Amino acid sequence: xxxxxxxxxxxxxxxxxxxxxxxxxxxxxxxxxxxxxxxxxxxxxxxxxxxxxxxxxxxxxxxxxxxxxxxxxxxxxxxxxxxxxxxxxxxxxxxxxxxxxxxxxxxxxxxxxxxxxxxxxxxxxxxxxxxxxxxxxxxxxxxxxxxxxxxxxxxxxxxxxxxxxxxxxxxxxxxxxxxxxxxxxxxxxxxxxxxxxxxxxxxxxxxxxxxxxxxxxxxxxxxxxxxxxxxxxxxxxxxxxxxxxxxxxxxxxxxxxxxxxxxxxxxxxxxxxxxxxxxxxxxxxxxxxxxxxxxxxxxxxxxx
Length: 304
Fold this sequence. Notes:
By secondary structure, the chain is of the alpha+beta class. The protein has helices spanning 20-37, 60-82, 101-112, 114-117, 152-166, 173-180, 185-199, 204-211, 214-223, 239-250, 265-278, 283-290, 297-301, and strands at residues 2-9, 41-46, 50-56, 94-99. The chain is 50% helix and 9% strand.
């Protein structure tokens, strides 16, 4: 058996996923393209500034085609919504062929354990975007959705998701805005779970066969961090990105205003100092978060 670990990184290691919408657009694009190409995805983990995939028995031309289609569609949508231009991802993606069950199992654990290595969660199943929590639950991060008793606006939104999925259409930012526009906070949580269940592409059956059961896989992942020696990953504390995101949103940055590339240097410098003062983030992480070129960092770092 063979599998291929693919790794996509944000340009210069800069941030990509600042909002739930960013994750949902990327996730549904992946779903639509993977289904169209009939690909088997054994592991998936989008982090703040990079994404991991593990494909079962994929050819190099198919892998290149998949990455090209996914990234080009996402960049088009992302740039339109954030009112920016230019690339989002590094030009070349990383790839590593895995041969043999033992090596593949190690890579599965490695991909799923990225949020633990990044000090974001205690277990992989707690991180929504590994998709592990959706194996035996339709609502792991919300209350149970009851279509017969939910509000009419919710039923209308659900039908829109069903329609787009049936027609092989990913959820763009505009489609998501239309779907979520009249929903309450708990309904929005239910809708995110519904979209993920509907578009879910993770190969649970293949994973269960590899580990003899899904429960065995979870136990194995929790007891083994896995390993990847062929690709250069971004290690370190990723919880700082979520801390910075919380602070940035608390001072009024949301939606397309999270495009920090449009801000004047003086504003970026001020945000840098605010985040440095209020978080445990290192300078390099703050600069990646703000898409800020590493200039005059020494001077700013010593400013009070």
